[in-house]
Each structure stands twice: as structure tokens, then as C-alpha cells.
Amino acid sequence: MSMDRRQFLKVAGISSILGFGASAASATHPTWQPSLRPDQMDRNKDSLWAKRWAMVVDMSKFKTDGDFQKTIAACHSIHNVPDFRKPDGSVDRKLEIKWIWKSTYEKSFPGMEEGKYQSEHVKDMPFMLLCNHCTNPACVRVCPTKATYKLETGITMQDMHRCIGCRFCMAACPYGARSFNWVDPRKAANLDPAKGGKVNAEYPTRTKGVVEKCTFCTERLAVGKMPACVEAAPKGALLFGDLDDPNSEIRKIVANKLTIRRKPELGTGPAVYYLIGGGEHA
Amino acid sequence: MKIYNKGPVFLGIAIFLALALFPFYNNFGKTNKKPEPKTDTPAIMEYEKLNGKKECVEPKEYMRAEHMVLINNWRDAVVRDDNRGYKSSTGKRWNMSLQNECMRCHSNKKKFCDECHNYMAVKPFCWDCHIQPVEKEEARS
Amino acid sequence: MLEKALEGGKKYWAWVFFLGIFALSGTYWYIRQFNEGLGLTGMHRDVSWGLYIGQFTFLVGVAASAVMLVIPYYLHDFKKFGKIVILGEFLAISAVTMCILFIFVDMGQPMRIMNVILHPTPGSVMFWDSVVLSGYLFINLLVGWVTLGSDKKGVPPPKWIKPWIYLSIPWAISIHTVTAFLYSGIPGRHFWLTAVMAARFLASAFAGGPALLIILALIVRKVSKFDAGKDVIQAVSRIVAYAMFANVFLLGLEFFTAFYSGIPGHQHPFVYLYKGLDGHAELVPLMWTSSIFAIVSLVMLWIPKIRRNESLLALTCIMLFASLWIDKGFGLIIGGFVPNPFEEINPYWPTYPEAMITIGIWAIGFLVLTFLYKIAIAVREQTAGVEIEH
User: Fold this and answer.
1) To 10 degrees, the CA torsion angle through B16, B17, B20, B24?
2) Is residue A241 part of a domain?
3) Beta-carbon separation of B99 and A206 below 8 A
4) Which residue of A46, A60, A210, C193 has the lowest C-beta tally within 10 Å?
5) For chain B, what is the domain count?
6) Quick check: is B131 in a domain?
């Protein structure tokens, strides 16, 4: 096959660029260097472990608004969740970030409320909402970089390092559980020292352009502690345990008592159960 | 020899030289001293007292060259594999955490991390999220 | 051939300059957005995709529409389209370029874009979207360049380009199907969870893209010696007519399912968009404009006397394009997010920076189109009268 000089130069040039580029990228790129071997890493001895972490919410144990605020504050403060306020002190709904929040019956279970025959009192009954850590989550399915994924323990985890901020997961989540950092979270008044804020130095903040949500406190489970909201909530209000363990308290509740989940018909398999009827449990 | 398009050609050469030589003439007269990272934080001195020597997670030479590889591996181990214990080649077990382990000893970011990073004009964006430790005065320098 | 884009008269450079101003302003606003975050836009926790993704969705359709010229010419030997296939392919390149730019400006962490390639996730529709879009750009660049180059030399294109041309046909269908899957495969957003989403996308693409092509062909005829020919434009307009009918029909199907089934979740987005809900009627005028333009343009396309009048045809195509732009580039996105999963209405409207970035990207797209068309026209004017073989 004969080739003129021009063609030769074109082919040679492109091959060299591809060759150099590929070898340089593969040799130095951190992603293609070996990750830790299983024998180099382990869990803490006191870490909590489960096959399917789940939560049962007993709204009857939340008595005052303070109960709610304490629970939410426990989570948001240790995780450096920014609290954006408008000048008049109201929540800035545009920039709002929340991992756990107080909502109403009407909004938590839309479609179940029946307009005119229910009193406002019933429609406004409070419910604690958070990420449901679904068994078959739509968000994990759609993420193009696996920045959100399932852990072995059943938690739907978020890798803030990998997230490209495409917000496909936010579109896919049927529960509105995810928040995006539209601006630098460190500018919020509760995190900015210049505005009198304080951070928890043991946990990172996030940066603008990534999605975040409840992680069932993996960093606390790793050192033998219950999630912050579970600890701060009134006794028996938030129960956390291994649904796969036949002896766990929440397994007994879910198996034997009446519970509902949000939008179960969508097939996502939420792991947050709302107990109906209250009652005594450990 | 006839030069065509004299004006644009010489102008182009002049602009090119101005851009290409910028790093050199812009730094005329400035000194650039060798980086001297300090490992004398209270936490490190405490460690030395307890263990008889200063040591990091891995040997100094490895850390100097490959600390980003280690940090990235730690990130994936903690966030993606849910493991927080690291068994290093020194035989010790460390808690994989940038803020709570690395920076526990190296709490002097300005006199340690930034020394070499500034010299090499490297700006790691870890600190966009991970919180820098509050600089404490060293016990002695 | 590239040098042909640099040879032009005063009007040409004035147009390029005009586009350049908007491109620069868009660049400035994007730098601001890059530094300050997407909070500069009107998006928020409930409406997390807005104008950028809407424009991307709409332009994927425009890009796919090149296939409406390729199929008749290459598969069915409809020789009349020989002269203008290149216009369709170059429009596709410009449209895909704009798609990629809109994705880029919408990302929260654009510097991490390589993560999509480093951590491929075959289960994610968005991963496949990036694959098929990049592939389509490559195919059109290859096919357009090679066929135009052969034209210039007055010879038929090399045989090896044929498979690529045939590949571009299913590939064009795929890019818009995959983009539709971004919406129709996620639970919980009633407005989007419909099997006909991909069909609607394709129908509106095959109406809107060729409509734009008609407008561009008429403009090209005015500013150069390249005349696509009245019968060619008429042939394209018939394609637009059928596709637009399919599009309007499919939209009607959506209305039927939503309202005859009576399911509140399905109805609410339509009510919000077309009537207003809970005191919020921000989008109502826009959506009705879109629908009225759609019906009017469809009727005008159906009446042969009107369709054959090229000035009226131009007006029809402009109305049609505007109607589809509103419906797909804006209404579709908002309808999926409002009401939110809690049945609340938190409306969305783009901000000034967001609009300027959008306009900037359209300007860049038109710049690409201008340069490519300039080259194509120059080659055509050179080879005018020579029958193009294939």
C-alpha cells in the first residue's frame, strides 16, 4: 500500500499523540493505580454492622416542636449542613439543604389525604422525613458515575468526591430527599465564622456543585454509635436496626405491627417505616 | 530575502515571546527558598515522647512521593468500602481520615502542607470540603 | 476547505461579530457561574433541572433531524435531496455542539466530567446519552467532511463512507430515544412516566429540525447563490407536516390518559402548565402560545396553497419551531418537577445570568453553523451544475 508523505505524517502524528497520551494517563492517573487490598483495611472492632439497616419512625413519641428541632439540629450540626436564611429570617427555599426534616401528613403521603372531609389538624399532622435508603433506589440506578451507590449494609451512600453535580439523582428520587449545593455551603451564616457560625471540625463540609443527603451516619456506626437523629429524638421515636436480623427490635415491629412507607407502589423498597398506632416498644 | 506580511509576522512573534517568557521576566529578582516542612506540632512531639520516634502512616520517602495515592485509596476505602482501619507497612493500625488522623498530627497546614505545595504551585482542592485544622502555636519550633 | 470560512464580505463578518458579542457575554456569565455556583440560575431544590437541560433536550431533537434527509437520499435514492443533505449534517454538528455545551454549563462540578468515562455505569441512561451523543458528533463530522470534500473535487465520495452514513440513521434515532429515556424511566415524576415519551421526542424532532432547515435554506438562498430549489423545500415541508401531525396527536394522547384516567398525580402537571394550580399560573401564557402555534402551523402546513407560498411557509416554520421550543425546551422540564413530590408548587423561572449563558451557547452554535454553512455554500457555488453522484 503506497502512501504519500502527507498521509504518513497525519497517521504518525495522531498515533504518537494517542500513544503518549494513553501511556501518560495510565502511568500516573490515580484512578488506575491499585487501591487498598482487603488485607490492608478493616473495620473498627466496635463498629455496628448489619445486613439491612432500616428505621422505624413512631410519630406518636414526638410531643413538642422542640423534639423535632432537637432531632434535626443534631443531624445538621454534626454534618455541617448549611442553614440558608433570607434577610427576614425565613428559610431560603431556593438554597435550602436538608437531610432530615419535619413535614406534614398531607405532604409526606400525597394522595392519601382526602380533601374536604379531613380536618386541617389531620392534614397537618407532623411527620419526620429523610432519605429512605431504598432497597432498589432509582437514584443509584441513574447516577452516571456511581457517586451514589448501595453499601453492603443496605445504606444508600453518597460519594461527594465523585459527584459531578448532574442532578439526575434528584430528578429520579421520588421522595425529594436530596439537596444540591447551589452555592458554597460555607457561606451560610451557621457555618461562616465571620457571621458567627461554627463548624464541626471532625466532619467535612461539602463544596458547591455536589448533591448531598442523609447517610444513616456511617461515620458514627463505624465507631459504635447510633445515628445522631436516633440518639437525639425522644425515646422510641426513631428506631434503628437490622431488618435482616430476626431478633432486632425493628424487625419485630415491621413483622408484627401496622407500618406504612412512602410511595411503596414505585418499587423502590424504602427502608423507613412509619408505625401506625404508637404503643410500647423497647 | 523578501519577507511577506512583515507587520503581522513580527507582531505575532513579539506577542508569542511576551507570553512564552512571562514566567521568567515576571519572577525576576524574586527568591524562591527551598521548602522546609515542619513536623514539630504538639501532637507529633507527644507521639515522639510515647513511641520514641516520629513516624507517619508510611515511611517518609513514600509519603513524600505518594501521599496523594494513599489519600485517594483511603477515600475509596472509607467512603465506598465502609472500612476505616488501615494496616500500614509499619505494622501499626491507623484510622483512615484526613481531618481526624492526618491533620491530628500535621495540624500546622501553613508550615507543613503549604511549604511544599506553594513551592510547587500546587493547589489541592481537598480543603474546599475538608476542614483545615485551626493552627495552634507549636510547643517549640 | 476550512479557509472558506474566513473569506466573506462585510455582511458576513458583521453577522459573525454580532454572534461573537453574545458568545463573549455568555462566556463572561459562565465564568461568574463557575465561580459562584449554579445558585446564579433560577433552579432550586424542587426544580433541579431548568433551562439548560431543556435546551439540551430540544437540541438533541434538532440534531437527530438530519436523518430525515439522509433516509430519503441514501436509502431511497431520492436524488432531489442531494444538494441539501450536507446542510442537514452540518446543522446536526452545530446542534450536538450546543447540546454538549448545555450539559457542561449545567454540571455542578464540570471539572469532574472525566468521571463519566473513568467510572462507566452501563446501568445509567445518562452514561449512554454521553456515549451516543459523542458518537453522533463524530459520525456527522466524518460524513459531512468527507462528502463535502469529494464534492469539491467533483468525484463521488469514497466507498468506505457508506457504512458510516447508514450507521448514522439508527444512531440518530438512538440519540433521541436515549434522551427520552432520561425522563421516561424514572419513577415518581408523573408527567414524564409515559411510554410515548420517546415517540413524542422523535415526532417533534422530525418536525422541528426540518422546519429549521427550511428556514436556513431560504436564508442561504437569499445570502448566496446556493439555491436548494423550490421542489426540495416543498418535499421537506411535507415531512414536517406529517411529523408535526404525529407530534400534536401524541400530545393529545397524553392529555387523554391524564384526564380520562382521573389520576390526580397525572393531571396536576397539566393543570399547572395550562390552567394554573394553587394560585400559580406562571407558565400558562407560554404553554398556550405553544399549543396555539402548533395547531395553527399544522393547519397552515396542511393547506397546500399556504404551504406552497414560500413566505407563508417560512412564517409557518418559525411558529412551529417556536412552539416546539417552548414545549420541549421549557414546558417539558418544568412539568416534571412541578408539583414536587410533596404536591407543592415552587415555581421556576430563569434568571438573567442563566438566560445570557443560554443565549451565549446559541450564539456559539450559530457561529459553528455559520462557518460550516459558509464552507458548504462555497463548495456548492464552485460545483454548481455538476450532478452529485453517490
Assistant:
1) -160
2) yes
3) no
4) A46
5) 1
6) no
